[in-house]
What does this fold into?
Amino acid sequence: MSENILVAVAWPYANSEIHVGNITGSYLPADIFARYQRLVGNNVVMVSGSDAHGTPVTVRADAEGTTPVQVYQKYHAGFLELFQKLGLTYDLFTSTHTENHFKVSQSIFLALQKNNYLYTERQQQWFAPSQKRFLPDRYVEGTCYICGYTNARGDQCDSCGSLLDARQLIEPRSKIDGTRPELRETEHFYLDLGALEPGIVEFLRQREGYWRPNVLRQSLGQILADGLHGRAITRDLDWGIPVPVPGWEGKCLYVWFEAVIGYLSAAIEWAHITGDPQSWEKWWFEPSAKAYYFIGKDNIPFHAVIWPAQLAGAGEWFGKLFEETENTHLTLPYDVPANEFMNLEGKKISGSRNWAIWGRDFLSRYDPDPLRYYLTANMPESKDTDWDWEDFVRRNNDELVATWGNLANRVLAFCYRQWDGCVPAEIGDLRPGDQEILAVVEAGFQSVGEHISAVRLRAALIESLRLAAEVNKYLDTTAPWFEIKKDKAQAAKSVYTALRAIDSLKILFAPFIPFSSEKLHTYLGYIQPLFGSQFTETRTDELGEHSVLRYRPGPQQPQWQPSQLQPGQALVNPEPLFRKLEPTVAAEERARLG
Ligand SMILES: [Zn+2]
It folds into this structure.
């Protein structure tokens, strides 16, 4: 019985490039998980998109002298290119700047209002008379009231690191034209998290047995310590989604409130694009569906507390308001396997100081699988990890090339030469040692599968590599390259056994390093690919054009099962799967940093 699995992936802010820390933090683990679930035969929808709204995008537009639309489209295009090169198989990667997302977000807002989970409150905020508009906190600069630093931002002081209350800044000035703003009263909608707290606590308690400790600490732990309090969900800003209430013109939904709604709106957009407009309900209304959220640790409260509160609070009103369906409650997160951070050569990654390895730049010099391999082997699942160039070269050469790539290439090339380009046809009965190694490798479908299901991706990769090492040991013992000189029939058994083990390992490695597994799959003589393919297209709606990344599904039958390689099957002349790197690479790459 196949399950409906929603793979919800963090929405990158469309105001900067993506680096390796972002990739290993959320995008890559999501893709590994999604690919595995598809191989098992489950119904996967993997969605995300560019977070186009909010002050980070408008600040960037002001700095570059362009418009927010141009900023978002520029970075969005870069994301689409990177995700294709890296093989991130989004069923839909869209953006928050779509008519559909506006409508879904406004429906969630109105459903919360219907259920009395919204209230309004007046507060003071900086207003720029020169521009006749309220200034977001990031647009006000002044003297830090804590340390006296004269260039503090409204939301944060870069000198003492304190989060600031913008209203208390000394000598405030507008970042746009330097004029002095004044405090004026404004009104905002608040999400009544206090009223939603009992339901959220119950939801989190049900997940105590299997959530990562860090995620529980930042959700349930925080609530039990401090309780939940109302949060403003609107802003005085014109770049974003209008508040759908008469008299509230000029105000927008707060970017954090609407961006998380993207997980739902993207699934709806995906269903429409694929020509089965109601199909999203299988992931969002059926209680048996499981939703996994792949995010970094800095986003835990929004995904483990606030987003579930929005979903629970919208209740059955969402379905009624959105498209008059009688379906009721929206699926709450099943798991939020948030990752910690990856540092670079012992220091925190910093985009602004160029202390980063940028995804697109990296892929202009290296293949995607070595990157996926290293980022998985070094994934910050339970603690911060470090990208170390020497370690990258070592793992590439010793693990990917020596243990796995050479194993596959050596056996395939040998077989191709000695058995006329085919798997040996006359095998006879396998010997006990042959059956033993096949049993060892085939047990991996259980052990590796359990690790991936529980989002322990490092452990799953280590287990796969251990099994490849076992096959190397088997070949050291049987040594078909010598065996063939004495007895070709015996060598045929060894080669057939090794090919079957490699054929199985190919599947076990496929979620992690799909490009090389797909290649190996071809070398082994299979016609149908393992996975589907990616493509982009342009969509048009009332807001204009937006480009999206999509995934054309591959074979529908489950493939996560031991090799059934047929004796006599025709092979394709193989080429090495991976490149060995020179030891000098580490020093060269270090010289590029900073
Ligand atoms: Zn300060």
Notes: The chain has a mean pLDDT of 95. The pocket of zinc ion is lined by residues 144, 146-147, 149, 152, 157, 159-160, 162 (CB under 6 Å). The chain has 21 helices and 17 strands. The first strand starts at residue 4 and ends at 9.
